[in-house]
Specification:
Radius of gyration: 53 Å
Strand content: 5-15%
Oligomer: single chain
Shape: elongated
Helix content: 40-55%
Number of strands: 17
Distance between the termini: 104 Å
């Protein structure tokens, strides 16, 4: 019977038939023979039976319906009962009857007992050498020490065959016919066995068989472990004691002997083939006699109640078939009665008041449950309303996804700063109040890729270096400077002084100096370039010094500035002015490695620079002029030994001066005009794109109309074909009927037959005429169909050609748009323009493809920390009042931002931001500034860009714009990254081939060996 939760579900007993009561209808279940008088009880029972929660009692299979479990139990082919012989079945059932142990312990007990005990009449396998025979146990014989097993066999054979006087020995000279390998043929091998000594080969074979049997048993045990039923610990302890006692008492002697009868496959005894063997020479079929099969056999034939210490009882039908006693022993009956008494005590009889109280309590619980369900439904409805009210994109930090709790059915939490402050006050008053956490900080997005921080230069100089490189790259055409990558520029800055020069760095300085010289020569100089700023600076210092000379204080900052002029080889020192005299007479030519450009630089710094414009100007000039009366070679070597900060200071000053020059302004106006033309072209391209889209929509609409018309025409043609076929069929029927009528009337008169003959001919002529007309009509229809098919094919070809042209125009338009975007970026003069900002106000900057695109540029996507204004905006989130109410609530302020950053992997950035916020909130500082410099990170792998795009949430305003820009520039970013990787690989391979003092000409060490091909 199928089991439900290891218990039997007894079918409902059928109601007795009463002829006096007339029932209208009953409901019958086919597979259980149950009859129900009400439809409700019938449908409830059927629904229970159809659920996959039943277990087959015989095989232990689970997750079955009731009917499937019945079929599994009733299958005779799969029943383990018939895998054992009849004698062994009966003995095993006797062993199982009234046992009170667990199923696994009972299986182990049965297997251990019958493994070495055999019963009379049992079919076994007898092992003789390397052969196995089928035998039946005839008699159990005690083992005697005086007579050997070989002698008993001989005596037994002599009793059965008194006429045979030959000795049954295993010698080869007994005259018996043998096989080529020396063994006796069957049945002589059975009547004249070999000695009982085992060869090493036999021992190995026996050990191998034992290992195989052991492995088979272990595999079967592992397959059936999940089907073992479990009871409580008390039952297990009681059962194991019983098993141990039974094993000690019932274990058979190891030297039991058996008389066996050789049988064939039909279990028919073979005459005169009887032998006495030892227990170790016979065995059962290991495929059937194993623990899993024994477990299935017990499940099929026995059952057990659910109370502790319940006995295993053989099913009544099986016990009756094998003649087993089903009456319980007295001690088991007492234990059963005790268990049933305990169960009945639990079911105490309650009074009417108690029942009424329970009924009221259940009613109240149901009402409370309904109220809670209604409240939960209202809350979910309100949550859905709030979510539907969101009009994306919204403020990134106010996105509701971060404040939805996945453990509370995605309940939305409002984390407005005012509410968080109230929670803090409540927590200070009551320590049991838990401060809320951000429920879903990841927002369902993939983790952000970790940006890189490995720069060649110090972190505080990265921003200044990027600004300088960007200016030189964007304005390379008007500066007549050959483009170079950021890697070449950085390596040139840190190149150690030696025999070689950093060409990139020298060319950058010289091109900037040439622009200043050209402005001075053409009288187009600005206030700084013309030297007016220096004159004003000197006049201001002189006036201040004269005022201070009238007082006793002579150590003022202005006087100290004035005294700087008298420092040896300092700013505007006589030696400096002597070296830089005539520096603006002519531009520095490209020949001879720009020889003498250091003197031009010294003259420029003394003429147009002031100590306020360049920090440590005196130290730089003193370093460039190592001594009085120094020569050009010494000054040339001195520039290479400047510190990194001093080199950047000089380049930064020259960049600021050139940026105000008329040359750069004219170039910027030219770029703006070109951008205006590009924007006009972009508008035209947008119009073409819209036109293509409308044409494509029109083409799709016509295709849809043609498909509908074609379907309707096919439906109209079908009935016409059917009518023509029916007409032909009726004509043939009429003709057959006429012929049959004429053949059926042979006794009519000749005149009547003649008249009928004429009428038949007329009918045949009419039919032929009709057929001819139908044939002509069919040909016309065929021609029409051919013409229609040709026209349709022609129309299809025209549509395909039109669609192909549309695709080609679309591809061409797409290429034009890409080239236009590339050209527009080339003429952009905004050097550092961020692509956008993420949710934490970090700026993403792409510097490539601006200006000239002869090199890969940076090959990176840079990330810059939030600006001063951004940090102020984040701080103000804690103090904003009178905000419009939002149904989906708002995110928090500083605490919310910092916690969200830590949860998303921004540990270092959150620490930096927290320090900046603390310094800006300092009320004692009237003019707050950022205590730490901004940080820079970068991505340099294409996979990181794809991961970054996946991390961005387009439902936020900032990240929506940033993601769109990244997707627009993704192709160019990845392309520049791949070019940088190729250049780095080429550099690494080329550096291994170069020797000391020699540099390759194929781009390796290009910051040292490259030449400025643009300059004259």
């Amino acid at each position: 019977m199928p089991l439900l939760n290891n218990k039997r579900i007894v079918p409902i007993a059928p109601t007795s038939y009463d002829p006096k009561k007339k029932r209208k209808e009953v409901w019958y279940l086919r597979f259980t023979n149950e009859v129900f008088t009400s439809y409700e009880s019938y449908i409830n029972r059927l629904a229970l039976y159809q659920q996959p929660i039943w277990e087959c009692e015989a095989t232990g299979r689970q997750h079955l319906t009731y009917e499937q479990a019945l079929e599994s139990e009733s299958g005779d082919d799969n029943r383990a009962e018939f895998k054992f012989c009849l004698v062994l079945r009966k003995h095993m059932l006797q062993r199982v009857q009234f046992q009170t142990v667990r199923l696994d312990s009972l299986v182990e007990d049965v297997y251990g007992y019958f493994r070495s005990n055999f019963a009379i009449g049992e079919i076994v396998h007898w092992v003789l050498g390397e052969d196995i025979y089928l035998a039946k146990i005839v008699e159990l014989l005690p083992y005697t020490e005086t007579a050997s097993l070989q002698q008993l066999q001989i005596v037994s054979l002599q009793k059965r065959r008194p006429s045979d006087n030959s000795e049954t020995t295993g010698s080869e000279d007994d005259g018996m016919p043998r096989q080529p390998n020396g063994r006796l043929r069957f049945p002589d091998a059975f009547l004249h066995p070999t000695p009982l000594t085992k060869t090493p080969k036999d021992t190995a074979l026996e050990d191998h068989d034992t290992e195989e049997d052991h492995d088979t048993e272990e595999d079967n045990d592992m397959e059936e472990d999940n089907d073992m039923e479990e009871d409580n610990d008390m039952e297990e302890e009681d059962g194991m004691e019983g098993v141990e006692e039974s094993n000690e008492t019932d274990r058979s002697e190891p030297f039991m002997r058996y008389r066996v009868q050789l049988i064939n496959q039909e279990e028919i005894p073979m005459e005169s083939f009887v032998r006495i063997v030892e227990g170790r020479d016979i065995r059962r079929d290991q495929r059937s006699f194993c623990r899993p099969v024994i477990q299935r056999f017990i499940r099929e034939c026995a059952h057990k109640d659910s109370y502790s210490g319940a006995p295993w009882l053989i099913k009544p039908t099986i016990a009756h078939h094998y003649g087993l006693n089903c009456s319980l022993p007295s001690h088991i009956m007492e234990a059963q009665a005790t268990a049933y008494a305990k169960i009945s005590k639990r079911k105490t009889v309650k009074t009417s008041d108690e029942k009424e109280a329970e009924r009221r309590a259940r009613k109240e619980d149901s009402l409370l449950q309904k109220a809670r369900l209604k409240e939960e439904k209202d809350r979910q409805r309100e949550e859905r309303r709030k979510q539907a009210a969101v009009k994306y994109p919204v403020e990134d930090l106010d996105l509701p996804i971060y404040r939805k709790d996945p453990n509370l059915n995605w309940a939305l939490m409002d984390m407005t700063p005012t509410l968080l402050q109230q929670w803090k006050q409540q927590q200070q008053q009551d320590t049991h109040v838990v401060f809320p956490k951000i429920p879903y900080p990841s927002g369902g997005r993939t983790p952000r890729p970790t940006p890189r921080m490995e720069f060649i230069l110090p972190a505080e100089m990265v921003e200044q270096t990027l600004v300088l490189w960007s200016f030189l790259s964007v304005f390379s055409d008007p500066l007549k400077l050959a483009p170079f990558s950021i890697d070449e520029f950085e390596r040139a800055l840190i190149h150690p002084p030696g025999s070689t020069k950093a060409t990139v760095l020298i060319e950058s300085n010289v091109c900037l100096l040439n622009v200043i010289i050209q402005e001075r020569k053409e009288d187009l100089a600005t206030e700084i370039t013309s030297g007016e700023a220096v004159e004003d600076y000197l006049e201001a210092m002189q006036i201040d010094a004269e005022k201070q000379n009238k007082t006793e204080s002579l150590s003022t900052p202005f006087l100290s500035k004035l005294r700087r002029q008298k420092e040896e080889r300092g700013w505007r020192d006589s030696e400096q002015l002597k070296i830089g005299s005539g520096w603006d007479k002519k531009e520095v030519r490209s020949g001879n490695d720009r020889r003498g450009w250091e003197s031009v630089l010294i003259g420029c710094l003394n003429e147009i620079a002031t100590p306020d414009m360049i920090a440590n100007l005196d130290q730089i000039l003193q370093h460039l002029v190592p001594r009085n009366n120094s020569n050009a070679a010494e000054r040339e070597r001195q520039y290479l030994t400047l510190s990194l900060q001093q080199k950047l200071s000089i380049l930064g000053f020259l960049m600021e001066v050139v940026n105000e020059s008329l040359l750069i302004k004219d170039y910027m106006e030219e770029c703006q005009e070109q951008l205006t033309e590009f924007r006009r072209q972009k508008v035209e391209l947008n119009k073409e794109s819209k036109s293509l889209a409308s044409r494509r929509i029109e083409l799709d609409r016509r295709d849809q109309i043609n498909k509908e018309e074609q379907g309707s025409s096919d439906d109209e043609e079908d009935p016409q074909e059917e009518n023509s076929e029916s007409d032909e069929f009726t004509d043939s029927e009429e003709e057959d009927s006429v012929e049959s009528a004429e053949s059926d009337t042979p006794s009519q008169g000749p005149k009547k037959r003649a008249r009928r003959h004429i009428s038949r001919q007329e009918k045949l002529k009419q039919k032929q005429k009709k057929r001819a007309e139908m044939e002509v009509l069919r040909k016309k229809q065929y021609e029409k169909q051919r013409e229609a098919i040709k026209a349709r094919n022609q129309e299809i070809r025209l549509k395909a050609e039109e669609r192909r042209k549309l695709e080609e125009e679309d591809k061409s338009l797409h290429k034009k748009e890409e080239q236009l975007e590339k050209d527009m970026r080339k003429y952009m003069t905004l050097r550092i323009r961020p692509l956008g900002r993420d949710r934490f106000y970090n700026q993403y900057i792409y510097l490539d493809n601006i200006g000239t695109n002869d090199t890969y540029g940076t090959g990176r996507l840079y990330i810059q920390s939030p600006t001063f204004v951004d940090i102020q905006t984040m701080i103000e989130r804690d103090h904003i009042i009178d905000l419009p109410e939002q149904p989906w609530g708002r995110g928090g302020g500083q605490w919310f931002i910092l916690e969200l950053m830590r949860a998303q992997g921004f540990e270092q950035e959150s620490e930096w931001l927290e320090k900046q916020m603390e310094s800006l909130k300092d009320t004692n500082n009237p003019s707050p500034t950022l205590p730490l410099s901004s940080w820079w990170r970068y991505y340099s792998e294409p996979e990181e860009i794809q991961q970054l795009v996946s991390w961005l949430n387009p439902k936020g305003t900032r990240e929506y714009k940033l993601k769109n820009e990244l997707l627009k520039q993704q192709h160019y970013i990845i392309e520049s990254m791949q070019k940088r990787t190729q250049a780095s690989t080429k550099l690494e391979s080329g550096s291994k081939r170069t020797t000391k003092g020699k540099f390759a000409s194929n781009g390796i060490y290009s910051w040292l060996s490259s030449s400025n091909k643009i300059t004259k």
